[in-house]
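Researcher: Before we compare anything, I want clean individual predictions. No alignment, no superposition, just each chain on its own. First chain goes here; please echo the sequence and then give the structure tokens.
Model: Echoing the first chain and its structure:
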Amino acid sequence: PLYLRVFIKSKIITTLHELQHPRLLPFTDFLSKLNIFALSFFSHRVILTSEMQYMRIPDLYGLKSRSKIIPVGSNIDFFSIKAEQKISLRQRMNIADDETLIVNFGMIRPDKGLEALLRALKGMIMEGYKVKLVLAGARPKDYWDEYREEIFSLADKLGINKQVLELGFLSEKDASFLLSSADMSILPYAE
């Protein structure tokens, strides 16, 4: 952005999306903030995707006057699903009629709060609720095996591993069907 602003004399608009990131290295948070600052400082306008970003980023970097919130819409088209298709889908996943189907959908990463969701699921089960959690989304190769082990070790430790199902990446149509068949979707970001 600095080069474009100084030498090309272009107007720069930066969109900040998915500011959370896996904390793989101790300095990742610092580098992330430095990168956001550099992008934002040299931009004429900054587009944020949520109220949380608006409240946090402008306070840190003095960007309120140049910031605008444009919420991210769903990138999953709606595909109509019939009642018998919902029943069939739930049966294929071994989800009983009296069980609540909770879906966690999106790229599966350490900053998405799955640990908190698993603990909440355990609490629901302890209260007598019949629930199943389906994890559906892309699994980044650079850390997936290790993170998957952490998640399923926690589920095992909590005694809920039979209530957690991993589907991985889904086509747009399958994702639409799954979300339409769910009783609820929970996306508990860590921050």
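Researcher: Okay. Second chain, same rules.
Model: Second chain and its structure:
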Amino acid sequence: VLVSECKGNESSIALAELLMQREIGARVRGDCTPAKMLEAANECISRIMQREFLASAVFLTINPRLKMLQYAGAGHPAPLHGPAHGGDLRQLQTSPKMLGCGGHVQVQDHSAAFEKGDRFILYSDGALKAARNGGAMQPFGLPRLQETLLAHRGDSLPALMDALLAAPLQWAGGEDRLTDDITLIGIEIAG
């Protein structure tokens, strides 16, 4: 699963996203780790675009046999892990350094064990930046996103995702008040 966001004009964003997907797609069947995939995508985009760009990304792979998630992130909000049987909500680790910051970017691989029913939530910074009065008031922020997740932990995954989208929209006063798009991806580990 890849979640990414690029900064710049529309044509450079589209090109960077396409190159990132192509580079990662070409390596997904091999031995490449998530960190190596993000580093390779960064090198490819830097070489082809020949100018600085900024992108954030989280890439994760799920190994059901080992009950292990392997992931890497660069400048993107860190995924949330909600254990099925109550445990504490956990924010996974990612690197704060964005892709495209002038050449080579080193990204670290991380792993997280999971059990049946665990949930992983990936999100864009738009969910965190949703603010009242067009940004003049306090943003929705990570603590409120986590509170919403915990309050709806027992809901079905679709209902949880609806609640996670509704909360920042309501905080901002409606979709037309958002200053950034919101992307949410929910993964529930099946038996």
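Researcher: What stands out in the second chain?
Model: The mean pLDDT is 85. Additionally, The longest strand covers residues 54-63.
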